[in-house]
Amino acid sequence: MGNPARPLRADAERSVRTILEAAERVLAKDPGASMEQIATAAGVARTTVHRRFANRQVLIEALALSAARQLADAVEDGRPDTAPPLVAMHRITANVLQVKSAWAFALELPGDADSAATLLHQDIARRCVAVLKRAQDDNLIDSAADLEWVRRVYYALLGETLRGSTEDDPDTLAARIIQTLLHGAGPFGGRG
């Protein structure tokens, strides 16, 4: 895809975005879909897709990176370093649910260990643990809890929510996920 040092013009950025959105829709239904099918879904000529992406693999890598960047932006929007931990956890969770539901195919793509998308996912996982550590420091999570395990449970809750919920409101879903993560399935409100 073009020279990475030179930013794309606004119309070229829109074209790339349209192609990537179409790729997500088409590939989610048919992972073997062709560049031509993606071009048709994007409403652009096949040559436009090939001008932006040299081949299908380059398109797939760009799709994975774009989705990872959106996920990283969703985390950053939750102010993980400055918002109170519970507020950050809720906002990040609601944001992540929206991105993951819109880019489910791209976010599940396997990446090379050193790909930009994989590195972003690793950074997101580190930031998640940092927010959980802040929550632990605020006594929201047991001081003996293994935060990497808590992160994995949190990710599982996100995945199960996206797979099985009939609720659409990301704030309601985020509240449920955070409540379950912090309090399990026990009676809510705590016992004192």
UniProtKB/TrEMBL annotation:
Keywords, comma-separated and alphabetical: DNA-binding, Transcription, Transcription regulation
Signal peptide region: none
Domain HTH tetR-type, chain residue ranges per copy: 13-71
Gene3D superfamilies (alphabetical): Tetracycline Repressor, domain 2
InterPro entries: Homeodomain-like_sf (IPR009057), HTH-type_TetR-like_transc_reg (IPR050109), HTH_TetR (IPR001647)
Domain of life, source organism: Bacteria
Residues passing through the membrane, by range: none
Residue ranges of DNA binding: 34-53
Name of protein: TetR/AcrR family transcriptional regulator
Record organism: Yinghuangia aomiensis
